């Protein structure tokens, strides 16, 4: 890592070697978050805490590569490993309303800018980016089912649009600038659409390429790593359709379901981490 994390290091020591990242980040609201990310052959680990709240970390997430189990542990609660009870949904929702929970999307962006490691390259990074996406979903305004997790505390989230007139085919530009998508940030200029310049890099050597058709854009880009048609390329390394993202989007077709509220396919899952 590039920066020491005093609270996390005091509890765990400097995390790992080659695939470990430690640092701190001051959020837009002025809160400092310390993070530790570790990826080994057998497990990956994400630790988040605040300097004024000493060990143990407020949040720890561990992914066991043997059985694929993801355990999310919040300070003061029993570990969460599945979506069996309403109590687990309540605890997850409570964490998302904390200062760290609310700041996960911007922390995700900062860590990627700081270290330049994609989620698909490092399972510890994937844990962070997945939780950040779940946080964004949790706080998104409920205008439509896709990626809108049910919550009584609705928070407006502004998405940044992009100038795409000279990039995408006219049919897709019209869709991106239409009423529905314009409410949700339009379309990222790096979105991989049929007839556009952006290619699918991940798994390209395997011949797996899926750019978005016009009808897929019109439905909100199911399968894109990111909210609606705005891309979070730090997750899978490009802005194409990915099966793991598509799975989670469809879980949230029922925003009140436990699968959506607990982030099945994002925060936890019997098949392990999100797969690009």
Quick structural overview:
With 276 residues, the chain is an alpha+beta fold. The chain has ten helices and five strands.
Please describe the structure with a list of short key phrases separated by commas or semicolons.
276 residues, alpha+beta, 5-stranded antiparallel sheet, 5 strands, globular
How much is the average pLDDT?
Answer: 77
The strands making up the biggest β-sheet line up spatially as 1-2-3-4-5
State the distance separating the first and last CA atoms.
25 Å
**Rg over C-alpha atoms, rounded to the nearest angstrom:** 18 Å
Characterise the protein shown here.
The chain has 276 residues and is of the alpha+beta class. 31% of the residues lie in helices and 12% in strands. The protein contains ten helices and five strands. The chain has helices spanning 6-12, 86-96, 99-115, 123-139, 170-176, 179-182, 214-218, 233-236, 243-251, 258-261; strands at residues 20-26, 32-39, 43-49, 59-64, 70-74. The chain has a five-stranded antiparallel sheet, sandwiched between helices. A hairpin with a 3-residue loop joins strand 2 (32-39) and strand 3 (43-49). Residues 1-16 and 148-161 have low confidence and may be disordered.
